[in-house]
Amino acid sequence: MRSKTPTEARKDFYQLLKYVNNNHEPVQIEGKYDESNAVIVGLEDWNRMLDKLHTESRGILNSTNVCSITNLEEDREYIYYKRVLKDSLAKLNTNIDDLIINNLYDENRMLYILAKVINHYTLFKGILERKNININNVLNKEIISDFESFILLDFETYILYNDPLEKSDETWLSNVIKPSIQDVIKHI
Hints:
2 domains, mainly alpha
C-alpha cells in the first residue's frame, strides 16, 4: 500500500483518486496526529468490501450498519463480543442437551452459564447502542424476542423456581428453549 503525508495527498489529490480507482490499490495517508491519518479506497473496491462483509456476516449486517461503524477499536470489540455471545449460547445449548439426554440437573452450573449468556448479550447490545446501531437492524426481531423472552426471562425463572427435571420439563427444554437458542446462534 502506498503511503503519503497529508500535504502530499492534498497537493496530488485528483491524481490519488485516479490512482486508487484505476489500480485498485488503497493509499494510506499518515500525518503527525491521529486525526490526519486515513486510507483512500476506490469506490468499486469499497463496494466490494461492503458486499464481502455483508456476505460473511450472513446478511446480518447491511452496508448502512457497516458504514456507521467508524471506530476500528469498536469494530474489534463488536466482532469479539458477537463471537463470545455465540460461543456462550453454544455452551448453554450443550448443557441443555446434557439435561435432556442424561437427565442431569445441576442448577448452579446452569445458572452460571445462563448468567454468562445474559452478560455477553447485554455487552453486545451495549456496543450496538454506543455505535447508535439499533439491535433490530443487526439481529432479526423474532430472534431478539425469542432470545430475551425465552432465555432471559422464562428459562431463568424456570430454573430458579422449579424442581429437578421431569418428563414434561424435557419436552419444554427440547421443544421451546433449544430451538430458540439454535435460531439465535444461526443468526449471530
